[in-house]
Structures are given as structure tokens and as C-alpha cells.
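By convention, the C-alpha cell line describes the chain's fold. To illustrate:
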Amino acid sequence: MKRNDIHKVLIIGSGPIIIGQACEFDYSGTQACKALKNLGYEIVLVNSNPATIMTDPETADVTYIEPLNLERLTQIIEKERPDALLPNLGGQSGLNLCSELAKAGVLEKYHVKVIGVQVDAIERGEDRMEFKKTMRELGIEMARSEIATTVEEALEIADRLGYPVVLRPAYTMGGAGGGLVYNVDELKTVCARGLQASLVGQVLVEESILGWEELELEVVRDAKGNMITVCFIENIDPLGVHTGDSFCSAPMLTISGEVQKRLQEQAYRIVEKVGVIGGTNVQFAHDPVSDRILVVEINPRTSRSSALASKATGFPIALVSAMLACGLTLDEIPCGKYGTLDKYVPGGDYIVIKFARWAFEKFKGVEDKLGTQMRAVGEVMSIGKTYKEAFQKAIRSLENGRYGLGFVNGYADMSKEELLKLLYTPTSNRQFILYEALRKGATVEELYERTKIKHYFLEQMKELVEEEERILSYKGRMLPVELLRSAKLDGFSDRYLSQLLAIPEEEIRAERESLGIVEAWEGIHVSATKDSAYYFSSYHMKDESPASTNKNKIMILGGGPNRIGQGIEFDYCCVHAAKALKKLGFETIIVNCNPETVSTDYDTSDKLYFEPLTMEDVLSIYHKEKPLGVIAQFGGQTPLNLAAGLKKAGVNILGTTPETIDLAEDRDQFRAMMEKLKIPMPESGMAVTVEDALSIAHRIGYPLMVRPSYVLGGRGMEVVHDDEDMTFYMNAAAGVTPDRPILIDRFLHHATECEADAISDGENVFVPSVMEHIELAGVHSGDSACILPPKGLTEEQIAVIKEYTRRIAKEMHVVGLMNMQYAIEDGKVYVLEANPRASRTVPLVSKVCNIQMVQLATDIMTAPYTGRPSPVPALKEKKFAHYGVKEAVFPFNMFPEVDPVLGPEMRSTGEVLGISSDFGEAFYKAQEATQTKLPLSGSVLISINDRDKAELEAVARGFHECGFEIYATGGTYAAVTALGIPARKVFKIAEGRPNVLDIITNREVSIIVNTPIGKKEKTDDSYIRKAAIKSKIPYITTMAAAMATVEGIRDVKRAGTLPVKSLQAYHAQITDKE
């Protein structure tokens, strides 16, 4: 029964996207809001991540975009007085905060009931000692292990258990701070790191069960104790690789029914004992040799696996969990397929594969190696009728230029011995290496010995290799019918066949269609609904899926897997486009393959196709559904890469044309257009060879910015300072061809970078606000903190930026959204680039300025069919009573070997937003939201390079006036004391003791300002920044950010406590400009 003792529920979101906690929690939080609204509750939502659907002002009743910590949540609870708190949908952040609020007595003081998962249940599931005790009571076996609270204890335990051992810190996520250690020295380093990462300073030392099968169950329980298993997941990578990085399948493919029964029986006993209401993920290890089953851990909350399980089975776990938390039970929730949910069993005649997406190429110096700490930044899910079909669909969904398993990274040219050597440690390329090893004659047994991947999966792969060898024997001509048919049944994509046979993809498609070898679709029923479904394709069946005859249909192409440079922001745009099209009376179709997102929720669109975003799959759907047109400008780079090919195949692309998008990418054409419009750009050139590059460099002069064409997220961008740098870069650049040259621009020195998002109908253009970057030019816009409305620009500069944006959008006939990047050097505005598509700042501008950018753009793009007038002329300039500061969040703590400096290549995984009526306070809140709270007192260490000495006075004096004690190194110390500011000198590493590292390690400094010296220097100063991360001390690597920091500290000291205020309240204060 629905609970009537609660009326107002507080939901905690999961904060910014980080490795291990991605947009699956936006999906679960948004689902929960939907469920609670339907039940008639009032919802208060807190989350610091602006790029989410859940923080849209219409999702909850009251929305707080505030830092997620004890202090801010206490303020919100005091102000809003909710009756209940639902913590198990905000990932690890939500659970940890709930525990902290309970311990601090806040929940008791304000009479807030916790629903869904009880506080003591969180402890039983999360606290390593409690969990062990609970398992012992149940008589369920775990890996032998003991808890250590010091490195010494850990060493003793490891001696007893025998190396290798696994270290797991308590209350962390994504395996943060843990790892597998083989000797005493490794244990000392990893254990020290783990004790720091843990909320309670405990690390579990356990026997290694490397190479066992890793199996997961998703269980849902209600208040009556009814339990169902939503999904059985088999990790194809054995234990030793974090489940977030593991390649896995649902249902289990090689596990006997008897073992599955035992797992289910144990899982039910555990969930019953812990007492979770809603979804729980239970992880087991099974030794195929001795048949021992051990429980590894449980997550008493919706997790990454539950998003996967939901999309794999059609069972909306988060939605149902929220309903159960409010007192409903499974037997009260109707379902079209099973009658009521308590009768649910996982069914469905198909195979689901999950494959992770990594970003090792973004982090120089990181070893591509997978272990117990999660490394993936995103994932794809594919559905097929056979393992081979689903596996190959997953590979072509990854968006990394690979459409099949062969001929990757030069593995095909290695010998069998070299390949076998590469297989000793798991890497992100493991499956591709296995494939080539089989081609070179490695046996299944040899590969099993090295990887412990089960024989079944290796044999399936071997069959694919043998089939590929048969295909290769026809190189240069079309395959015979039978071979073409079997290749398509086994998941070989048209694009990959074209690569193998060296004939155009179009010819293969035409041949296949003429023979009737085409995709068919099947629906997956969504539980708890009457007859909703979403669809997947296969070549193994006849097409019997329905397609409506409604002419008013529009297809939206999603963004594919999350990766650095293309994240949740684009999914946000796709979801809003679907909502807007519904309002305008269109039927919507979404195509996407990312299981973590709101766009792949069954009811975001009228019809969802869970498919890879490739020509083959998108065109098949297009021919089946026959929509009016396709929207490609909201999904980031993924759909844009398809746009020109789709248009060539006769598809109607809505909004800005693919030609315009290419024009913006083509430097020569774009420069010619800027000259025509008399808009200044930094001098530049395009080079294919080293000689070209050097002659351009000598014409323009160093420093220069170099980068490849056609990339997103500043992939491969660098600043070069001399001929040696340039030669090195050009020689290392891969895949440079005359039609894909390297772009070279003059690097604007000490320039303020700005960007503007615009809405255009081809004639009229509106810019809601200009964003001013805090970091200077040279830091990728996705990584720079930014302020809107701008604070440091003159009225005149803002007017010039808006005017240039209008002229460019009109000249390019942009229909929809556009993002412009500018730099201001010595007061002059230069254009850096134009992106005639939705950019990652769209959700940010929409939230801060209270303008529905995507809805307006969608209205404009569909005007030819709706006959509606353009909304642009009616849009008015606004006056804001607040500032929003966006700050990026980086995964450097997961990559301790990387120098955490900012540069032109994007490396952030997510972002947060700080809002306040005052810039300094907003900046302070943004820093606080990234979990590095700025200190209001203490000492600061300043060590900067000579190029930055100009701004030193403002920064040093600012800290001094805020009451900070200043420590400085060598040249910086001399400069600071020469200005008459007191400081203490501290040694660099080679100069003596106590040195910089000592005072950081002993935490004698509370904040660090350290701008890096160039690559050319003899000494490396990255150890300062790496130490700061290790000791969790806030550190700043640019002078611009240092000045903003001083302002933030000053404002907060003056204000005392910072108030919390809802997004709706900020929006109410926005007025029209006079």
C-alpha cells in the first residue's frame, strides 16, 4: 500500500560524472521523480551536475543545484523540511551522504524518515566488517580476508593469506584506491592510498580469487519480502577485472541451471537479511574447478549494473524501486506480460552484450591495463539473436573507428609469440589481440591458460576468425550468396566486409538487399506496462515488428557511448528534442546504444531502437519507418559523422545541412568566409608534411597551436614552442592525409577565451548569454571553468561577440543551434571556431538563463512541416540577478601517474555548477561541488613559472590579505618578498629538506598554486601536482584560476555562511532587459 505518512520526499543525485559513476544515475533519478510524481508526492531534488535531465526545473518540484555535502544538505533539509529521504538512487554519493546525515543527527532532528534502504542496511552492505559478520551469520562463504586500519596490519594479514592479495577500501566506488598486489612493496604503496580513499580508514585484505567466474544477479525486494531476480549477468572477463570494465553477457551463457539456482538462493537470503527495499546488485565468484561459490560484495542501491539490467530485460528497476520505497508491493504493480510483477521471470529469446569504452589515449603516461580499479568512461550495449551477432554489434557500436575485430593497432603484423606475451595482463584491447592470436594459430587451450576466458567464448571467436579467413580469400570481388548470408548472420558489418574485401560499402549493401538479406526487428516488452516495447535488429528472423503509418514521424540520432569530449550533455539535447517533438505533435524515434542514458528509456520517445549508430543500422530503420526526416545535430560528433553519408543515401537531414557542418570543419573555406565578413581570426595554415609545418611556423611565429582536423574534445591538440617540438609532433601524428591535414594556428597569448551558444532560424539569431572562461586561451573549453553571464568583458566586447555570432550564423544558414568560440587578445575579439550543432554547454546555458534552447531549435527545424512562425524574433535579452560558474571534474585520482595539468586536449569526465548572486560565492560553490573545498584560512604554497610572474602580485597579495601564510619556492619567493609581502622559503626537491614534497605530505599547506614549467625544462615539477592529488589538497595550475580563487575566498569570508537557493527561485528573479 502507498504510504500516506509522507508527502514531501528529498532525492539526492549522484553529482558530476566521474569514472565509476556516470549518467546511469541521471537515468535512475529521473525515473524515480517520474514514479513519485505519479504517486502524488512532492519532490525536492539536490544535485550539483547541471548536464542532467533530473536537474531540469520541471522534473522535480524544487530543484537545488548545490554541492553534495553534509553542510549544504543540512541547510536544504532545514529549509524544505522533507518528510522522507530516498538515498538509493544517487549512486555511492547518495548512500554515503545518507549515512553522514544520520550520524550527524540531522535526520533525527528534522524528523526525516529514510525510505527504500535503511541506514543500518547501508552499513550492512557497505561496511566491510558488518558485511562479513552478516555473511557469517547466514553461513555464506566469502573470500578469506581481514580488515586492516594501518599498513603494518595489512602486511601481517597478507603474510597469513599468501600473496597475491586484493586490497579493497570501504565505502568507495569504482574500486577507487584498491588493487591487486604481488609483493610487500606494492602492498605498502597501494594500502596507503586505499586508507586515504576510504571514508572510514579501513582496507580489506583478501585472498586472490583471480581467474574465477564473476557472476552478478540483480534482485528486487519489496516490503512484504517478495523477491524477484530481474537479470543474471555473466562477466566474460574472469575475476581480476572490475565489473565496470568487464565484457559481459545477459543471460548467463555458460553457467549451468543448477549453479544459477544456488546463486539465486544465496542472493535472496542476503537481500532478505540486509533488508533492502528496491533493487540490489549481488556479485558472486564461482570456481569452475572446485565448484566453490563466494559472495564478493553487494550494492544496496541502483547501480551501473542495474541500468544495464533494466535495458537488457525491459524491467525498469529504478522506477519500480521508487514505487516500492513508497510502500507499494510487487503484487500490487500490474504488468501486461506477467499479470503482476511478483510473477516476473527473466525471459526473452535474445542475447545482450555490454562492452566498455575507455579513454587511455587521453592520458599520456597511463599504462593501458585493467584491474580491480575501474577505468572505463562509458559503455555500449548490443542485442542480437546469437552471441556472435551481439558481440560484433557491440564492437561496431564503440565509436572508435573499429567495425570488426581484426586488423587493429598493428596486431595482425605480430607473431603468435608476441601476441601471447601481450595477453598476460588484461588491457582494453584484449579481445582484439585474442582475435589475431587465433588467426596466427594459437589454440583455444593456450589462450585459456593466459586469460582464463572460458572455452565457449574463445571457440565462438575462433569460428569468427575462420569465417573471416574464408571471406578474405574473395578480396576484390563480391562474396558468394551463402558466405554473404552466413557473414551477416554472424554479425559482420557491411563496413567491415567492405574493409576486408576492398569494395565500397554501398555495393555490399545493394547486393545484400537484392538477395533479401536484410535486418528484421523484435520488441522487448517493458515490465510494469501494458504493452510498451523497444526494438533490436537481427538478420536471424523475418520482420514482424509493427511500424505506424503515421506520416508525422521524426528520427533522432543519439550520441552513442559516453567518452571524454562527448558525454551526457548530448544525451540531454536528444531527450529534450524528443519532448519538444511530442509537444509539436510528431511521433518520435530514437536510435542509440548507450544503456546508461535517459534517451534509451522506453518512454522518452514513442519508439526506441537499441542499435549501433552506423550507416547500415540507421538506414535500415529509416527505410522501415519512413520518417519525414532525421535530426543529427543533437548527438555530438557521432551522428554528424553519419550525416553526409545519410544525405547521399536520400535521407532528409533536418536543420543545418551537412554541407554547412563540413564548411565549418574545413579551415580554408571557413577562413575565406571570415575574410568576406571581415571578422578577424588568428593566422593559421594546414600542413601534411614536416616541411609544410615548419614553413608555416616560420611565417606566423611561435608559440603555435596544432591539432588534427575532424575531432571532438580537442583530441591530439598541443601547444608547440619551437622547431624541435613541431617536428616531433608532425612525426608522431597518425593518419595525416591531404584531405585530413594538421591544422596550425597562432597561439593567442594571455587571451581571455569566451564562447556563445546561439539559436538561429537561418535569418534571425539569438544569443542568450556569452560565457567567459576563467582559464586563458590554450585550455580546452570543456576543461575550463566558465562564468555566465560574463563578468570581465566590457559591454562593447559582448556586443561585438553577439554581432559576429549573428553574422556567421546567418552567412552559414544555420538552422537550429550553434556554438561559437572566441578569444580576446589585447581587447580585440578573434574567432577561433564555429560548431553549427548543439554543444556541451547547451544544458548549462538552458539552466542558468532559464531558456529551453533545444525546444526552440526543434521548433525551428520542424517549421517546414508545422508551418509555425520562427520563435527567434520574439526572444528578449534578459537581466540576471545571479552568476553561474561551471567547473570541470577530472579523473586524475584514478590515474595517479598522470600530470594533472590543463591543456588544449579535453580530459574532464563531467562538470558541476555553482550558482550565487555573487561571482566569488558562485566560484567557491563550484569548487566545493567538485569535492575540493577551498580553505578559508591556513597556508598557501606558490610556485610558478617565469611567464606568469606578471600576475603574481595580485594573487600573493590577495592570499596575504585573506590571512594566509605564504610558502614559496626559489624565484617565486624572491619575487613575493620583493613586493614587500611576507613569505617563507621552501626547497624544491633537489635543493634540500624539508622540501615541497615534505610540506605537502605532512599537509602543512592548505592550498597550492603551481603553474607548470614548459616541457623543455630539465626538471620536472609534476611531482608537486601529483602529490597534491594524493594528499587531497586543492591545487590550481593557472594564474587566472588563482585570481578567481582569491576572490571566492574573500567573498565567502565576508559573507560568513552561504545560503542555499533553489533553481526555481533564481529563475523567478530573471527580468527582461530594459
The chain has a mean pLDDT of 92. The CA atoms of residues 131 and 915 lie 40 Å apart. The chain has 37 helices and 43 strands.
